[in-house]
């Protein structure tokens, strides 16, 4: 039998409408669970617990977090949590954001009473919800029974437990828990609730349960409780990313990393990971105080950190306190070679590279600038041309104008100097001409005087000759008379 099937062209619009309506309904429901906060929030929040995202409208990371934030609001609301979820435009309400110590975007804080806890982990829904539930509850949670104790150990990878009654150690434990609750869980239990596999040397005691075993705190060996908790809050071997590496910097430990490619696994990468895990487990007592072990997927972040290229797979040790790093001089083939390399870093015989010298800081400035420009051009070439091409063009025109103006000024100065030299030369020529004319005039005067003197001398001689002739004539006349 042939069935009457409606034409596809008529069904498609109806399905699209229903799909869009469902999508809009779900979005509106999710958005309803996140409140937009204003400057009245700080006066009305005292009796509630708030998970707040401080953002800037122009921040790309904030926009990327927006759908995740609404999923967090919807899930906390549906689970019956007492945590309120909100968001605040820190640029519009800068005074409120400043009171809460907001320095960058986005900033995630859980506000409980007078306390504000910063979230510094990965910006995923599950991680943020776990942080909110952990911090919103009691700082130290009680484990009333052995079953609850074992359930908590199965549920969490790292758990700190105070075992015993009231003491000064418990007071210190509560103080440390109030400070570090943003990172891990803190519990307390009486001795009868402790599993039989746990052997206590003394009571009261503080223990950390992780990696399938437990480790006891020793004040004489480990120093301050807060420092010990901060170093032990990570498992012995980690899957390290940028956020984890940032948190590891606060422990003061060196970070030994197997750099591998998780997307394209290789035998060499698997071998390096296995060697790193083995050293982390078998040499815990020797290295756990100073080293954190783990692996990282890809070398992009490491390359940016050390401003150099690290091959994949490879091994690197980072000193996050001074930006130094260490690389093995030869390929690590066995766990003995791995231990030897780690020991060389620990005793200072391994060659350190990088650092925080002035040269490295200048290099960092240029590297970051180049990376920023390249990332912009890779993501949006047109935007990159506009952002960098336009300013460069303007700067080039300004430089051209300045250079041209200087050239004009120089030519004007040169012309002026040339005119002055010409005037001075003309003045000298004029003076020389005047001197020459004066000299010629003087010579003419002298010649005239000499000529006059010569002419005067000839006249006197003629007169003398005439007088002599007259005297001779007179004398001859007298002689004639005498005769």
Automatic annotation (TrEMBL):
Question: Which CDD domains does the record associate with it?
Answer: PDI_a_TMX3
Q: Which organism is it from?
A: Paramormyrops kingsleyae
Q: Does the keyword Translocase apply?
A: no
Protein name (Swiss-Prot/TrEMBL): Protein disulfide-isomerase TMX3
Q: Which residues form the signal peptide?
A: 1-32
Kindly report, in one word, the top-level EC class recorded for this enzyme: isomerase
According to the UniProt entry, what is the EC number of this protein? 5.3.4.1
Catalytic activities: Catalyzes the rearrangement of -S-S- bonds in proteins
A single MF term (Gene Ontology): protein disulfide isomerase activity
